[in-house]
Amino acid sequence: MGWKGLRNGVLLQVAEDAGIEVLLTAEGNLTYQQNWLNRRIAVITLSDNHWPTIEKKLPEIIRALSLAVPGSFQFVNCGDPGE
Predict the structure, then answer these.
(1) CB under 8 Å to 41, separation ≥6 — which residues?
(2) 3, 9, 45, 75: most buried by Cβ count inside 10 Å?
(3) Residue range 8-23, pLDDT digits in tens
(4) How far, in Å, CA of 19 to CA of 40, rounded?
């Protein structure tokens, strides 16, 4: 989408303006660095970005997606890559 390099606040705004409702990320600091008041996007942060690790947690990720509401953020602990 040409968004590479956008910083957290700008990325959230661009995503909201594009109509994106949920951002799935492994950027752990995002939820602590932003003002969530009046945000239209929900954020789900994963503890890892290693696909084999994430794949094992798809039911938890899908559950988080089903609970996402504008301005919310959730954390999904994917465990250690070695698990």
Answers:
(1) 12, 15, 16, 20, 21, 22, 23, 70, 71
(2) 45
(3) 788 888 999 999 999 9
(4) 9
d(CA 25, CA 75): 10
Q: Is the pLDDT of residue 31 over 70?
A: no
Q: How many angstroms from the chain centroid is the CA of residue 74?
A: 8
pTM above 0.85, yes or no: no
Task: Quote the CA–CA distance of 26 and 24 in Å, as a whole number.
Answer: 7
Nearest Cα residue to 21 out of 8, 3, 39 = 39
Which helix H or strand E contains 61, and what residues bound it?
A: helix 58-67
Q: For residues 25 and 64, is the Cβ–Cβ distance under 8 A? A: no
